Amino acid sequence: MRIIVKSLLTGLAIVLPLIITIELLRWLLQLVETSLAPLFQLALPASWYLPGMAILGFMLLCIVIGYSTRWSGFNWLWQLPGKIMLKLPGTSQIYGMLQDIIELMSGKNFADGSVVMVKLPGTEIELIGIITKQGGQTNDRMSSLMQDEQLAVFIPMAYNVGGYTIVVPRSCTRNLDMKPAEALQLTLSAGLGSNKAPGKTQ
């Protein structure tokens, strides 16, 4: 009986992430297709439209928008809707939360070389964190609260989109050769993922 239960749990661990990922992707693709397909059908003859063209058009649009942000004028234009959303009552919290989650998971606002191991004073315990601010930076609200030799470090929580921001002396940290996105993935999964160390093939 124990072997059956163990095999069931092992099978679920393999199958469920696959099913959930596929279903999320299917839901997202279906949402894009059903939302944009009517626009393509209005612009094109009915015989020209093929299923999936809306998804392809959406991806091309995202590429164009992302590339155009290289110029400050276009970047300001694309940032404008988000700034408006952040000022509207009721939508600012939702939009801001979704934006923060996406940026957190992508490691967008974290610079390379900012992953550190933080040692808790008086203990041998260390936590993986990502430097978000440094003391002494001008015109920065968070930095103005810190001393020059202090760092603000984000400590992500396992299996939860969240974490803590702690302010520690630079001497309590040591740098890790890891990209911020890799550190987030590693800590959010509590280190239980199958990610291999750099340079390891097996």
Automatic annotation (TrEMBL):
Protein origin, superkingdom: Bacteria
Coiled-coil ranges per UniProt: none
Keywords: Membrane, Transmembrane, Transmembrane helix
A Pfam family hit: DUF502
InterPro entries per record: COV1-like (IPR007462)
Transmembrane segments: 7-28, 48-67
Protein name as catalogued: DUF502 domain-containing protein
Organism in which the protein naturally occurs: Rheinheimera maricola
